Amino acid sequence: MSLPSNNSKYTLKKITLRQKQRCFRVAILGQNGVGKSALTVRFLTRRFIGEYDSTLEQVYRSNKPVHGRDVDFEILDTAIEHENNCMEENIRWADAFILMYSVTDMCSFNECCRLKFLINSYCKKRRPLRMTSDPSSKVTISTAPVILVGNQIDKIRDRMVTFDEGRRRACEMGCVGFYEVSVSEMIDRITEIFDDLYITFKSSKHPRVKKSQSFIRTNKDCHSSSEEDDQIKKHPETTIFNPARRSGI
Ligand SMILES: Nc1nc2c(ncn2[C@@H]2O[C@H](COP(=O)(O)OP(=O)(O)OP(=O)(O)O)[C@@H](O)[C@H]2O)c(=O)[nH]1
Fold this sequence. Notes:
Radius of gyration: 19 Å
Strand content: 15-25%
Distance between the termini: 41 Å
GO molecular function, one term: G protein activity
Shape: globular
Bound molecules: guanosine-5'-triphosphate
Pfam family, one: Ras
Number of strands: 8
Region (Disordered): 212-249
Mean pLDDT: 75
Order of helices and strands: HEHEEHEHEEEHEHHH
Enzyme class: hydrolase
Protein name: small monomeric GTPase
C-alpha cells in the first residue's frame, strides 16, 4: 500500500528540520602552551600529537555520540596571536567554553580569571544576577556553560597549582565543572569533558529545574559531598561538580 502524498511531505519536512539542527559550538580558551590543540585533536581523533602550529586558529567539525545521541560538534581551538582581534567574536560564536590552564604554570591559571571575565562580558546569552550582599547591584553573567580544565598532571614534579586551588577557582568563577587531566595520557576523561559540556548546555537550554534555581553554583554551594571526597581521593584527576550530572540528566 502506498503512503498518502501528504504523509511523505511530512517525513520530508521532518528530515529537513533535523538537518537544520545547529552544531554545538565549543571554544577552547587559555594561554598558549597549555594544551588546547592537543585536547582538541585528542577528542576528535583519540590521538595525542606532540607539536602544533601555535599561530593557527581553527574550527574543527565532527560528529560524535553523546549518551547515544549523535551530536555535531564545532570546536574552535583559539590561538593567542589572534586573541586581541577576535576574542569578542570568538566568545559570541560559542555555545559553551573550555577554559584551560596547565597545572605547571601559575600564570596560565590566573589567565583563566581574565578569560572568564571576558566570557561574562561578551557572551550572547546573559542573565542578570543580584549579589546577596548588595541586592541593589545589577550584574550580568554568562549563562553559557564553562568547564575549567587543568592539564599536564603527568608532569608531577612541575606542578604549581593544586587540585584544591583549581576546584576553588572553578567555583569562584561560576564554572559548571572542573577537571584535571593529562591530555597526553588520558582519553576517556577528555571525552567526558565534552560530553558533560554538551549535556549541561542542553539542560540549561531546557532546564528541568525551576527558573529561580540557578545552574551557576556559588561559593556557598561549593563544598563536595563525602561521596565526592572519596572519589577525589581515589581518582584525583576527576570532575568534582557538575549540576547536569547531579540532576541525573
Ligand atoms: N607532558 C604533557 N605535555 C602536553 C600535554 N598536553 C599538551 N602537551 C604539550 O604541550 C605543548 C603545547 O601544547 P599545545 O596543544 O600546542 O598547546 P596550545 O594551548 O594549543 O598552545 P598554542 O597553540 O600556542 O596556543 C606541546 O608540546 C604538547 O605536546 C600533557 O598532558 N602532558
